[in-house]
Structures are given as C-alpha cells and as structure tokens.
Fold:
Amino acid sequence: MKAVVIHAARDLRIEEREAEAIGPGQVEVAIEAGGICGSDLHYYNHGGFGTVRLREPMILGHEVAGTIKALGEGVSTLAVGDRVAVSPSRPCNACDYCLKGQQNHCLNMRFYGSAMPMPHIQGAFRQRLVAEQWQCHRIADGVSINEAAMAEPFAVTLHAVNRAGSLADKRVLVTGCGPIGALAIIAARAHGAREIVATDVMAAVLDKALAIGADRVIDVASHPEELAAYSANKGYFDVQFEASGNERAVRSGLEVLKPRGVLVQLGLGGDVAIPQNMVVAKEIEMKGTFRFHEEFGLAVDLIGKRRVDLKPLLTAIFPIDDAINAFETAADRAKSMKVQLAF
Structure:
C-alpha cells in the first residue's frame, strides 16, 4: 500500500508499506479521505513542534474516513462495506486517567501520527488501515466521505464546548478563524450560543467565518478598536474560544470577557504573559482543552443527522501522489481552510 511518510522537515515521501495483519476485534479500512491538520503541517514545515521532534520516519495523518474491507474474529457491530469515520484516539483504558473517565489524558495513549513517544505512533495517511472496531463510527447514508473525515477536528471543538460549560443564551468570542476556530463557531452555534463574534487578521478567513454562522467578524489587524469597544462595563462576552495561540488574542479576550467569564484555550503557542490582575479582579476562568474522547461519536452523529454543515470548510482534495502540493496548499491560510488527501 501507499503511505504518506515524513522523514524530516520538508522531506515528505510517498512510500510503499506492508499492510498490517488484522487481529481479533479489528477491522481493515480502505482509507478514502484524510484531512491535513495543523500538527501535520508542523511536522512537514518544522520537523515537529515544541519539544516534540521527529526521530524516525513516520506516517502522518489522523483525520480519516473510509470503507471497511475485512473483519477480524469477533467483530459484530460492523460489516464489510460500511463507511466509517475512524477515531485516531486509542487510550489504554487501564491507567489512572482512563479509569477516571479522562481518556484524553491516557498515560499510554496511541494517537495516530504522533512523534511524542519512541518509537513513534504511525499515522493513518495510508491506503489500508487496521483499526479496533470501537474506533470506527458508521457514517449515515448521504454523508460524503470527505465530510466524515472532518469528524476528528470537529470533535476537538466539541470537547472545548464541554470544557466551557453550557453555551445556552451565551455571547461567545472566537479568536482565530482557521479550521479549528471555524469549527468552534459551528460547535458553539449547535450548542445554543446567543451571539458569536469572530476575530482574525485575514479577510478571507473572516468571510468564511461569517458564512458559516458568526454574527459579526472583526479584522483586528486593521480595526482593533472594534473589539476594544466590547470592554465597556467590564466586558461583554461570556465565553472566549481562543484558537490562534497568539498572546495578543488572549489579552484582548480577557479585556472583553465579562466578570466570571470563561476563556477556553484551543490554540497552541509559546509562553505568553497575561494580565494577572485582570484575571483576579474579573474572576476569569481560564481552561485548557486537549483532544477529545466521547465527543468523536457525537461529532459523527451531528454530521450524520445534518445538525451541522461542514462542507463549506473543505477547500481542496488532492490525490495521495500529489501530497506535497496538498501540504503546501494547506499551509497557505489566505487560500485554504481544510485540505484533504484522496487515497
């Protein structure tokens, strides 16, 4: 089978790999669609992120969907021919965190396409993938394979909503309108947000944010005063989903959050300085959010029941043999929201 393998920064290759043997409780999936994520781009452009570095060749990818081609012994919930979205999250379900229902913090997590452990966890950008049956969620009739492959990043934002608490009748600020910020807008709307304002520094992504459900968008590069106006009377927003990883976005969000507002940090960045006195005086709750677990099934259901429409986020689809162009296109924020590979 063909696989998309990263060897070092800017060294991406399409290689022939042996398909894995299928075992009890497992299924073989013919992967048909795979979305390029920000972490994939970090491996491609920089050879890793933070302290996580590539130390051996690794198959990339974790946003995938396809069709089941074979069943292992004991599989009873799926059938050959089923179209499925595959959760990349494979917790051990035995460590302290798993037993507390915090599987996203599993001490022995095997998340597709991760260079954190050594040997690395090989990813899902391959033509055949052997997965546990419980990873595979059947796709509803009429849902495209490309929509299904967006269940993973959508699940990330659904977990962020869980961290925020109820959004019913809440005013929400989303800072950073890349793929995760855009999906946060969709997730917030699906969970009852009363008003959603989105900010970024690029007009193209703000236009997309408006099209998918934001009530208002602000270009904070050219009109920062429009966001600053929301700081009157100690703030306006109940919840901020910070998806840019930018210190200025964090600071400006704290200024416009109401007392006892909630800041949920989705975006990854470096060390940042925060106005500590403001956090104290306004009793702001700052929360991190990391991956997901049970939200993956919810993401598939919401897509399948047409409660959300993720199709507008799909920018382009490239064949696997053109993966380098796909990665270059995905890295261009002015042109791309979500770029996928076809296998």
